[in-house]
Design goal:
single chain; 263 residues; mainly alpha
């Protein structure tokens, strides 16, 4: 089955093609405005750990499906709560089931926003791109999987940006899915594995917070566990090394083409 062509996209008015993206922006803004993001944090996980653990043990399949649905929506809406959710997946389901559910959900959410962005904007972006950008698009498409793996593995680029940019650069859906699925595996399982061992840390942090509140100094009490603090320099170096490995095929191809007698 062929993917939707630019001709088919042109048949739809621009306003109609932009509508799904507009709805996503409105939904994300509504969630921000309602303060719902405050309910997804390691502090909330610590406060409700027993109830959540009991529910998961009694309704494992339903809990996994609910988690996948929520995580998919979080990625599609580009909400900045993926890190605590990934830790929660390892904590609630175990590092492997939680990590696998997160990878599947993150891939699905990324594909949703990719398809919507490509349908709405790719054709217009391609027509307005100048010669330099057009050449960049062609080069990116030629080695899309390697470039996308690099962008996914090296934690320097916002996840939402890496979801959207390939859609504007004309990357094929198949290449996007493969690179996204493989590229997010290392970071996801690293966080899920960390989350699987968080129980004692969460208990200690919650006890410390409760003691602070009991002393009457509520304003100065903080829950001192930030997901970003779990990303060590060694982990960043490891991801960067994986990203460099992903670019090796591109470098080899470029070098081979420059050899005398090679087309």
């Amino acid at each position: 089955m062929q993917e939707t062509s630019g001709v088919e996209q042109k048949q739809k008015p621009l306003a109609l093609r932009l509508l799904p993206l507009l709805l996503i922006v409105v939904a994300a803004a509504g969630i921000w405005w309602a303060g719902l993001l405050d309910y997804v944090s390691l502090q909330k996980l610590a406060e409700n750990r027993e109830a959540l653990s009991q529910y998961v043990s009694e309704n494992l399949v339903l809990a996994l499906l609910a988690f996948i649905g929520v995580y998919t929506a979080v990625v599609a809406l580009s909400l900045p709560i993926a890190a605590p959710l990934t830790l929660a997946s390892g904590f609630l389901f175990g590092w492997f089931p939680g990590g696998l559910a997160t990878v599947l959900a993150a891939t699905l959410g990324a594909v949703i926003i990719f398809v919507l962005a490509r349908t709405a904007l790719a054709d217009t972006f391609a027509r307005k791109a100048g010669p330099l950008l057009g050449k960049f698009r062609e080069g990116f498409q030629e080695d899309a999987v390697s470039y996308l793996l690099f962008l996914r593995l090296v934690p320097l680029f916002p996840f939402w940006l890496v979801n959207l940019a390939p859609a504007l650069l004309g990357v094929r859906l198949r290449d996007y899915v493969i690179a996204t699925f493989l590229g997010i595996i290392p970071g996801t399982f690293a966080f899920a594995l960390t989350g699987a061992g968080l129980d004692s840390v969460l208990v200690a942090q919650k006890d410390s917070y409760d003691q602070c509140v009991a002393q009457g100094s509520t304003d100065s009490c903080t829950f001192g566990l930030d997901p970003s603090h779990l990303i060590t320099p060694e982990l960043l170096i490891a991801f960067a090394a994986l990203g460099v490995v992903a670019l090796i095929p591109v470098v080899v191809k470029r070098f081979w083409k420059r050899r005398p007698g090679q087309a």
